[in-house]
Amino acid sequence: MKYLAPLLLFIATNANAQAIHFKSVLVDTHNDCITACIEKKVSLDQDLTGINQSDLKRFKQGGVDYQLFSVWCDGDKKNPYAWAMRSMDTLEAVASRNPDKIVIAKSWGAIQKALKENKIVAQYGVEGGHMIEDNIDRLDTFYKRGVRYMTLTWNNSPTWASSHADEKNPKYTGPRGLTDFGKEVIHRMNKLGIIVDISHVGEATFWDAIKTTTKPVIASHSNAYSICPVTRNLKDNQIIAVGKNGGVINLNFYSAFVDSTFGKKDAAFRSRHQAELDSLLNTGIQREYAQSALAEKFAAESEANKPSLEQLMKHFDHIVKLIGIDHVGIGSDFDGIDSSPKELKSVLDYPKFTQALMARGYSDKDIAKVLGGNFLRVYRINNPQ
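Above: the chain's sequence. Below: its structure in token form.
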């Protein structure tokens, strides 16, 4: 009998978390499932259990109401703008086949209508300014197609901004920070309503962007450097600057950005299976998805290296302590990562994140802010129409 009370408390807490979770508008600012579907030659409206971390049915089962789909290719991809167009075509085909389930919403009215009708709101986030190929007018095309944020750089650098990877690379000879053209890009984004995303950028680019933008920014998928010191995460002074800007930092689920010990363990894992990784790369698949396939093949080894959800929540707690509950959200990076916290295996597991918030004593109102309200505030400032 002594175990009954804790068990009943757990059941009640879980039920309350589920109720809050599905009552709130859940926005995930970063999911790479479009690219994952293209690479794996599958479609998002199929049952992709065991293939992807996401699919159309499981989005709703996990409580996702509003998904910003990453449009991504690495810096080696030829014709990145054409790739971006192909990626958007891919999702539009899914939406056209499933008009009762998903809508590419291009106005606030369309967003509200889709939410009311229990349809998934879909928009795009272009992950890397190299995809405009130095043609600023392509931002207008992106916006018309439903792009609502652009990450200024991926790990590579366009001609007008420096990435986190290049700023620490002694062989990099490009600009540090934003060029004059880069600042024009931000001005055009502000005018159109494309949110400036500072995930992946170098520190020089970050500070130039903060000084240049007239609208709140997002970090679509980044964590806290002081908890996990990798250059993809934000240092405390950067976190504070995002707070002062009115922006939102959306937590990334990737193990290497959550747990500072993961990188060494993961490197050893890949070294043990280098032959298999090389074989996958020789098929032409992009490296990130070759690494995901390797993790799936050797699932037990991969699982043992993963951090816990509580380690991710350390990042949440740290950011909230610095800038408050109004500046944190979710940017999972699902289907663009090969490892995530043990409790967060797929889009079905978002309620566990909500349960972790509830366990910390946050009110229903504050939980709703984190799950989506904070992003919606930034969206409306950038897109008042």
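Confidence is low (pLDDT under 50) at residues 3-12.
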